Here is the input.
Amino acid sequence: MLHRSLSRLGLGVVLVLVQACARTPVEQAPAPAPEAAPEITLNLPSQQPECKCPEQSASSDYTFLERGYGLLAVNEYDEAVEYFRRYLRLESSAEADWEAEVAITFVMTLPDSPIFDPKEARKRFRDLNDIDWQSMQLHEQTLLLRHSLESFLIMSRRVKELRETNEALQQDLEKREEAIKRLRELTLGQTGSAP
Here is the structure.
């Protein structure tokens, strides 16, 4: 019985110790203090370089012009021209007039356009080039259209020269063929008359 009592007593002591351990909070090591992040230095210039972009006039509203360009990009030529004409009517400046006229002239060079007229486009472009457009603050896409028109004019001139050269060569070839034909006739006529 003593043995049993000691067993119970030992078991009781173990249970008390387990309970005591369960109730006593475990001390945690203090969390390390966060380290200060190193300061980042950027290699940026102290002064921002000046933008060399052309300043757009505050008085110009490019809404209609840009809508026209958007429609031009998706081959909606009639609507694009309408927006260019609205821009021409609503904006009252030399720049706006020139930009709208360049855009409409460009549409005239496109074979699928309902206002396709390359001869008139060449004339209009020459007139537009006579204006001092280089001193104007123009929309970037207008300048691209102007460069395209200039290329069109150069290529158009080259095609005209090649056609003229071709016509001259064709006439020269016809004259040579006629001369060869006469020479044959004379040669065959003389050999045919000999005994």
